[in-house]
Amino acid sequence: xxxxxxxxxxxxxxxxxxxxxLDSDVxxxxxxxxxxxxxxxxxxxxxxxxxxxxxxRDLILQQAxxxxxxxxxxxxxxQETDALRKNIPDCKNKKFDCETKSxxxxxxxxxxxxxxxxxxxxxxxMEVLRFIEQRFRAGIKITPEEIQAYYTKTMLPEYAKxxxxxxxxxxxxxxxxxxxxxxxxxxxxxxWLNSLRAQGSxxxxxxxxxxx
Length: 212
Known about the structure:
Order of helices and strands: EEHHHHHHHHE
Radius of gyration: 19 Å
Mean pLDDT: 84
Helix content: 55-70%
CATH superfamily: Porin chaperone SurA, peptide-binding domain
Low-confidence stretches: 1-7
Strand content: 5-15%
Number of strands: 3
CATH topology: Triger factor/SurA peptide-binding fold
Number of domains: 1
Largest sheet: 3 strands, antiparallel
Distance between the termini: 32 Å
Number of helices: 8
């Protein structure tokens, strides 16, 4: 009797302190790149680096659960989403009319997301960034001059490459501040994550390996 073809099961690619990272999570990370309009350059997707990012994300979210932190509100999430919808190139070029619900839903669907999937993932992203800011930002100040310099030297050339008119600097200042903050705290964050990895249990599974 011939073997029946079943539904492909989601494969575990990493285990972070008993939390599973699945192959579908890695694929979602790849698709999420289309929703990042401020990338400095278009690069091919690096699966191994994506898995490392997901491991770091899980470590940070696990720590955030252990510490008192205000939750990201629906209003904050909606505010950031509204700004995102106005600045994604495919939305700005009217390939999708993302300022309407139907257009936004179509854009998300074209990248393999439902609105619920996107909302959950973007909320997690905001929680991670908030935790990093609260833990590592003390004493770090990003000046308006630094924001303007990054906008002029980095953002404008990238929008020019995409053939898209750049939004005014004030509409991007929060995102630029976020980028500069990430650059400043990257060393501190890397040391902290290395410590969490040493203290915890991280298992990365390669193709053909089974979860313990």
